[in-house]
């Protein structure tokens, strides 16, 4: 892939490694329900980390906290050395720009063309020149295999194509980290492979940091260099995919995997 389509210069192979995301003692409650209880959690730059575990264990909540779609009750969140929570609103907006997210439901702007869906935020939020944003959008559409769909409306695309546009749209903001929340769950089975192929390509050809929540164990095995098994708001086991899927040590991990594989 040409270097000008890499998400950011910081993700070049010479990028400094080290911790990119850190949650410290994060507690999140919904009413009486404590979903995360003093969670410590970190992701190193350039890593492709997948969160697996039973439904309701708090995986999506972690992504939503990082995206500032919800706030912790206690604790701190730091991204690339800067505080995301607690932090003044202006700083939150700055730090938040380093994070891109792709949702289960693609959430594209239905009244805009594919190209405009991708250029809108770089132009309005980053202040990028329209020409530059369009050039980059074309590169990204090439990357996700949709170069011929730039003028289409989202409703004219299949779910898999819409999700690939959503991936391009997230990358257009040049995030340091890409959060992927069950990105294939809403897709018809025959459309899943195309989306996973694109993500695999991005994982291999860039060193953007990825934090994924998925039920697709093959995808987790394939794309991740670290798998975290979550249960009741805690990481109960972590390791490279060959270890977690091949020789899980924790009984809960074994039970979970035998139920889903
Ligand atoms: P997972 O991604 O592991 O399935 P979630 O992070 O989505 O888990 O949810 C963890 C728990 O928090 C679940 O019990 C869920 O019902 C609850 N929860 C998540 N979001 C909300 C919300 N906005 N209001 C109330 N409860 C919520």
Automatic annotation (TrEMBL):
GO terms for molecular function: ABC-type amino acid transporter activity; ATP binding; ATP hydrolysis activity. Its main location: membrane. It is found in: Cell membrane. Gene3D superfamilies: P-loop containing nucleotide triphosphate hydrolases. Residues 21-257 form the ABC transporter domain. The keyword Cell membrane applies. Keywords: Amino-acid transport, ATP-binding, Cell membrane, Membrane, Nucleotide-binding, Transport. The keyword Cell membrane applies. One of its GO terms (cellular component) is plasma membrane. It comes from the Bacteria. It is a peripheral membrane protein. SMART domains: AAA. InterPro entries: AAA+_ATPase, ABC_ATPase_HisP-typ, ABC_transporter-like_ATP-bd, ABC_transporter-like_CS, Ectoine_EhuA, MetN_ABC_transporter-like, P-loop_NTPase. Belongs to the ABC transporter superfamily. This is L-cystine ABC transporter ATP-binding protein YecC.
